From TrEMBL:
<protein>
    <recommendedName>
        <fullName>Right handed beta helix domain-containing protein</fullName>
    </recommendedName>
</protein>
<dbReference type="InterPro" id="IPR011050">
    <property type="entry name" value="Pectin_lyase_fold/virulence"/>
</dbReference>
<dbReference type="InterPro" id="IPR039448">
    <property type="entry name" value="Beta_helix"/>
</dbReference>
<dbReference type="InterPro" id="IPR012334">
    <property type="entry name" value="Pectin_lyas_fold"/>
</dbReference>
<dbReference type="Pfam" id="PF13229">
    <property type="entry name" value="Beta_helix"/>
</dbReference>
<feature type="region of interest" description="Disordered">
    <location>
        <begin position="1"/>
        <end position="30"/>
    </location>
</feature>
<feature type="domain" description="Right handed beta helix">
    <location>
        <begin position="179"/>
        <end position="313"/>
    </location>
</feature>
<feature type="compositionally biased region" description="Polar residues">
    <location>
        <begin position="10"/>
        <end position="23"/>
    </location>
</feature>
């Protein structure tokens, strides 16, 4: 079969056969599976509420999921619109119940003047005391009790008080499994996803290029209680779980994720996670970390994290709604690092972290190493990075509980053999308040970090 290009506009009212931009499909049949060489192109400026279908390509004919036309990137939402006033009824004590039957929830997002505000998830109805507080699952006798309705604290009908309300179910969005390979995803935007936005779980030869990923995570981790007997939440933007190889992530903006911007964890066998290149991306306001190799008993091989700009680890919507230290299994310690290494097999791994900018992890080190056997550093190369903490009292590194501040860089180099050409310097971003992390001409970090706009 000859390679096929299909044009899709999820918002069109005059659906065609999809063979040209002038006659796009409104949706694909449920049975549709891309074949080698298939291009699925979504109209720029459109909004889709269903994931794109997955298939497999070949080395010379990958499946391409991308965009056509002018304007902003096609937007894929993992959420459900609950903005209609008719969906809400009073439930007493400044509480409103959504009458629409909903799956378990991870987040609730309110819009005012086109700005997003995440509501604060509460663990019982009695805790609904502040506008935008919401509750579905309650903790009763230290057990999760799922409710099939959503409650929100509001003086009046919340749908009349806000421009829009998006309910985020605790679903994964796109999962690349063993039979998914040679797929290129580019020029798309993903938002409001309750668990993981893009997860590789056995897939290989997957490329994620020039995509934006935001407002991810918040699902309750129902299999585990934290070390202090508290239930915790989770969700990553881009995750490799247990297995995946030949993975490329480049040119992306990843922000406002409850947990990790990028994670490679839980390797199911030595080298099951291998040949991964995460390069030239912006990661900012992500709650847990931006490069994460944890939960591992096996080595990961040839994993590179290079030329990325990482800002404000531990920030984002999770911190805004839960405060600091944010809810996690690490309490009473705070979380929020740019790099987290916690792999029992790290000595046999090959991890390269170079040419990055790591800027600010308030109250925390920029890099935390939680597990490191005696010869563990032999599998890791960290060098030619730029580090900066706006508060000099915040450490740069934490290795097995030993903290290193600005004045300790030489000692850190001596003890670890890492970072011999790295610098400590304010990056001089173009406009940090507006999340413009390009570098000014006089930046001491020019040549480091990501070169994207």
């Amino acid at each position: 079969m000859a390679p096929q290009t299909l044009y899709i506009d999820p918002n069109t009212t005059t659906a065609g056969d999809g063979t040209s931009p002038q006659h796009p499909l409104s949706k694909l049949p449920l049975s549709f599976r891309p074949q080698p060489g298939t291009h699925l192109l979504y109209r720029r400026g459109s909004v889709a509420r269903q994931p794109f279908p997955l298939g497999s390509g070949s080395e010379d004919q990958p499946v391409v999921i991308g965009a056509y036309g002018e304007g902003p990137k096609p937007l894929f939402l993992g959420s459900i619109d609950v903005s209609s006033p008719e969906l809400w009824v009073p439930a007493g004590e400044n509480r409103w119940r959504c009458t629409q039957k909903l799956p378990p929830g991870a987040n609730l997002i309110f819009f005012d003047n086109d700005n997003e505000h995440c509501g604060a998830m509460r663990w019982s109805h009695d805790q609904l005391t502040t506008p935008r507080d919401w509750c579905m699952a309650e903790i009763v006798d230290n057990q999760i009790v799922e409710r099939d309705y959503l409650l929100v604290h509001a003086e009046n009908n919340p749908a009349t008080q806000h421009q829009r309300i998006e309910f985020v179910p605790e679903w994964k969005y796109i999962v690349f499994r063993d039979d998914h390979h040679h797929i290129r995803v580019r020029d798309l935007e993903f938002r409001y996803i309750g668990t993981h936005a893009l997860q590789v779980s056995g897939g290989h030869h997957i490329e994620i290029i020039d995509c934006d990923i935001a407002y991810v995570g918040g699902a309750i981790f129902k299999d585990r209680i934290g070390i202090n007997g508290l239930w915790v939440r989770y969700g990553n933007a881009i995750e490799i779980w247990e297995a995946g190889h030949d993975i490329r992530v480049e040119g992306c903006k990843v922000y406002e994720t409850y947990d990790a911007g990028f994670v490679a964890q839980g390797s199911s066998a030595p080298g099951a996670i291998r040949d991964v290149n995460v390069r030239n991306n912006w990661f900012y306001d992500n709650g847990f970390d931006n490069f994460d190799n944890s939960w591992g008993e096996h080595a990961i091989l040839r994993v590179a994290f290079e030329h990325n700009t990482c800002v404000n680890a531990g920030g984002g919507w999770g911190y805004v709604t839960e405060g600091r230290p944010r809810l996690s299994e690490f309490l009473p310690d705070a979380i929020g690092w740019h790099v987290f290494l916690d792999n029992q097999a790290i000595a046999d791994s090959t991890i390269t972290i170079r040419h990055n900018i790591f800027c600010d992890a308030p109250g925390n080190p920029l890099v935390r190493v939680r597990q490191m056997p005696g010869d563990g550093w032999r599998g890791v190369v960290m060098d030619h990075n730029a580090y900066f903490q706006s508060d000099p009292d915040d450490p740069l590194f934490d290795v097995l509980g030993q903290r290193f501040h600005n004045d300790d860089l030489d000692l850190y180099r001596q003890q670890t053999g890492q970072e011999h050409t790295s610098i400590i310097a304010d990056p001089h971003f173009v406009n940090r308040d507006r999340h413009d992390y390009r570098l000014q001409p006089d930046s001491p970090c020019n040549g480091l970090g990501a070169n994207i706009t």
